[in-house]
Amino acid sequence: MIGYRFSLCWIMMLSILLVACQKDSSASINQNKIKPLGENLKRIKHSKVLRVGMEPAELPWAFYAVETNETTGYEVDLAYLLAKELGADLGAEIKVEIVPGDWHQLPDHLRQNKIDVIGNAWTPTEETQDISWTRPYHKWSLVVATRLDSPYQILDDIKDKKVGRYDDPVSKAYFYSLGFQSVSTYANGYAGIDDLLAGKIEAFIYDSAFLLYHAKQTQKFRLIPSSLREEGYHYGVRQSEPDLFNKIDQIVIKMKASPSYKKIMIKWFGDAK
């Protein structure tokens, strides 16, 4: 009888331990479940729209054509690829809404919740430290354009010449550290190239994406071999939206490794770099 009671006690103790283990296991499983979507991700999934801020003013980045009522550019193509990958992660077909705005004002538009993402050739600055920036989705550098008939072959040839640069806070301090003596600033790349071709400046220093694209398209100017400053374009997301930021940051990795990304680079620049 004693042996029976002893065995019964052991059985009861084992049952209690088994139930406790099952509870611990269930708790562990619940802890490993996918966390709920952040508010902005919920809105994007529900509305099926990703609002991307751009200034549609210059190719190859983004340009709005009044005649066709279309915005084209490689940044636009990349935004559609980004939305496609985001939709695949969220289980929804996400469309892109290009929200136009002045390039310098895009960070404010993000802070004011007018857009979800800054997606227009942005490199982080000291003034935008309150924004979360993804890993770079495209590399760029400052390059030097000069006329086809100019005698300049290297950077030192133009140090004492009148040159132009884009009025960009990212490159301003760096530009003057190079020792140029006569500098004109321009609000956009087109104005700089126009003055270059008109002989008002001897060289124009600007973003490699713009100058490589237009040198190929126009055949009216050439590039002096140089790479003055290498940077990257990053997507900007509000710091209050870590879920959306993490999604987009991981999507950038997939995008850059995808055949679709390479096709976009070849379409606009002639190579997959």
Question: Which properties best describe this structure?
Answer:
single chain; 273 residues; alpha/beta; D-Maltodextrin-Binding Protein, domain 2; 2 domains; six-stranded mixed sheet; three-stranded parallel sheet; 9 helices; 14 strands; 42% helix; elongated; disordered N terminus
Question: Summed up, what is this model?
Answer:
The chain has 273 residues and is an alpha/beta fold.
What does this 3D model show about the protein?
This protein is α/β, with parallel strands linked by helices. The protein folds into two domains: 39-137 and 234-269, D-Maltodextrin-Binding Protein, domain 2 (3-Layer(aba) Sandwich), CATH 3.40.190.10; 140-231, D-Maltodextrin-Binding Protein, domain 2 (3-Layer(aba) Sandwich). It is 42% helix and 23% strand. The protein has nine helices and 14 strands. Strands 8, 9, 10, 11, 12 and 13 form a six-stranded mixed β-sheet that branches. Strands 5-1-6 form a three-stranded parallel β-sheet. Helix 5 (172-177) links the parallel strand 9 and strand 10 (182-186). Helix 3 crosses helix 8 and helix 3 (74-90) runs antiparallel to helix 9 (259-269). The longest helix has 30 residues, at 2-31. It starts with a helix and ends with a helix.
Blueprint of the fold:
Elements: H1 2-31, H2 39-47, E1 49-54, E2 57-58, E3 62-65, E4 70-72, H3 74-90, E5 95-100, H4 106-111, E6 117-118, E7 131-133, E8 138-147, E9 162-166, H5 172-177, E10 182-186, H6 189-197, E11 203-207, H7 208-218, E12 221-224, E13 230-233, E14 236-238, H8 242-256, H9 259-269
Parallel strand pairs: 1-5, 1-6, 9-10, 9-11
Antiparallel strand pairs: 2-3, 3-4, 7-14, 8-11, 8-12, 8-13
